[in-house]
Amino acid sequence: MSTWLTHIRRLIAVAGCLMLTATLAVPVAAVPAAVDGLAAGERYLRTYLEQTRAPGLAYAVIRGDEVLQRGAWGVDGDGRPITTQTPFLLGSTSKSFTALAVSQLVEAGRVDLDTTASTYLPWLRLGGADTARTVTVRQLLTHTSGLPQVWSTDLTDRYDNRPGALARSVRDLASIQPTAPVGQTYQYSDANFMILGALVENVTGDTFGGYLRRHVLDPLQMTHSAATADEARAVGIPVGHRYYFGRPQRFSAPFDTAGVPYGFLAASLDDLSHYAIAQLSGGRYGGARILEAQSVRQLQTGTVATGHGTYGFGWRNSTLDGVGTRIVWHAGATPDFFTHIVLAPDSNLAVIIMTNVYAPHMDPLLSAGAFNLARILHGGTPATATEDPTHAWALFGLFGVAAVLLTLLACSWVRVLRRRRHGSTQSVPSRGRTIVATIAWVGACAAVAAGVAWQVPALWNGTGLAKLQLWAPDVGHAIRVVVVLAAALALTRLGLGVHAIVTAGLSGADRSRSVATQSPHSGA
Which residues contact 38 (CB under 8 A, 6 or more apart)? Predict the structure, then answer.
């Protein structure tokens, strides 16, 4: 009897273990099939590389504290192979590092999120005096300061590496006017993070790059990164590319110390992988902790609606279309590099894609890469993305205007040559008609040149011609060609008009002398 009872107890225990195992297996089944999707993800990235025509690409897939897959393909602007240790400029992905630095100071009790920024930066002046006095650190972090985007102005991309470059750029913000009340409206602006970078400098007494190196980059073992011009030279940031009439063109720009807090931090794929691991692991990487887990969650939690999700502290929040997974992400670009990090905290996954080419019209296609790779890893299918057509239409229109101007210029010079050949045998229009026609020609050419030089750049967030030349050189050069042709046509028509007026005057004088000679009283 006892033997049967023993067998029954064993069967019950085994059944219980099986039930417990089945229960514990449910969460595992819910985890995205990252490993199974890696091959599909790599196939997609090969297609992505062809679509974007990127000369070089680096990518990584991370789960928890493990890099599941990484790769580096192609070459840099000097033809050297891209590796996982090749530094890329991060663009606006740098903002999350600035937010992290500020959060470290908050944890240390040296900065309070809801205290005005001018408390820590007494010399701060902005176009709206109320903004400078009332905007808080939190509002700068969430882009609710009311300050407009300054990307299109000469306040960014200054390539200033002299001592005090960052503070100097923030002092120049005194010229900008707020476009919304403080704390009420989300308006993405590099100006917010420029101010935060200067705030870190003022609170710590260190340069922004120096603070970042000692408190973020070194603890994360980011050995192929750069937050200063000296570090950029040491790690050797390679030459990148810009698109020029659809094809990548080598472009070498200097490092920009003044722009590090909002867009000019540099890091390699391996470095950025360490950073992503810390973001997934509650602020830890290896034996180092750069931030408490609660502060990391605060960074990644969106609190302000953007129209396409929410914004936290240096991170965007949204839902991955087609999959439904919450993602925390940020993309960034300089004129010659593009970087995109996508975190899926609920899945404990991260995706990084970096390319050494950029242009504003290619942003939708370039940004799709990390999103689609994350979709594949979550069992979804890639979404279709295309280039922004504004760029192509602008070039088409400029080429059309240039063709018309060139045709008119050619016809005008044919007229000049005919007049030289036939001399005074051609009929000469009246002086009044010639003056009116000349003024009309010159005025029309001036209007075309001015309209193209000011209105076409406005399609890119109201930027000026010099900034457009930096980010979209093919459009910038096309504008310059139109302006030169318009000026040449105006000068040609002005020359023809002056010649016609002089000729008409001489003809009139000849006729007067002829009449005087034929008069019966002449010579009397």
Answer: 61, 68, 69, 377
Say yes or no: 381 and 412 in one domain.
no
Burial class for 412, CB neighbours closer than 10 Å (0-12, 13-18, 19+) = middle
Q: β-pairing, 240-244 with 357-358?
A: parallel
Question: To the nearest 10°, the Cα dihedral for 220, 225, 227, 228?
Answer: 140
Q: Which of 362, 387, 412 is the last residue of a domain?
A: 387
Question: Per-residue pLDDT for 409 more than 60?
Answer: yes
Q: Comparing C-alpha atoms, which of 333, 362, 367 is closest to residue 157?
A: 333
Residues 175 and 323 in one domain: yes
Give me 304's structure tokens: 């302000």
Asked if 86 and 58 touch (Cβ cutoff 8 Å), the reply is yes
Strand extents, DSSP E, 152-294 = 240-244, 247-251, 266-267, 284-285, 288-289
**What is the SS3 assignment for 338?**
strand
Backbone angles phi, psi at 125, to 5 degrees: -130, 135
Task: Judge whether 214 lies within some domain.
Answer: yes
Measured between alpha carbons, how far is 385 from 363 in angstroms, rounded to an integer?
Answer: 10
- Tokens, residue 459: 């399609």
Q: Following CA atoms 118, 124, 128, 131 in sequence, which dihedral angle do they give, to the nearest 10 degrees?
A: -20
Six token digits for residue 113: 């999120």
Q: How many domains does the chain have?
A: 2
Query: 133-152, pLDDT tens digit by residue?
Result: 999 999 999 999 999 999 88
CATH code, 234: 3.40.710.10
Task: List C-alpha distances in Å: 383 to 59, 198, 284, 320, 323.
Answer: 19, 40, 33, 11, 11
Q: Which of 387, 415, 444 is the last residue of a domain?
A: 387
Going by C-alpha positions, the residue among 119, 223, 126 that lies closest to residue 170 is 126
As beta bridge partners, residue 285 has 288
Q: Which of 141, 186, 462, 171 is nearest to 301 (CA)?
A: 141
Q: What is the pTM of this model?
A: 0.86
pLDDT at 314: 98
Is residue 19 one of the residues assigned to a domain? no
Please give the share of the chain, as a percent, with pLDDT higher than 70. Answer: 87
C-alpha 505/C-alpha 400 separation (Å) is 38
Q: Which domain holds residue 113?
A: 30-387
Q: 322 and 419: one domain?
A: no
Q: Give me the residues paired with residue 66 across strands.
A: 63
> Do residues 207 and 301 share a domain?
yes
Q: Side chain identity at 398, as an amino acid letter?
A: L
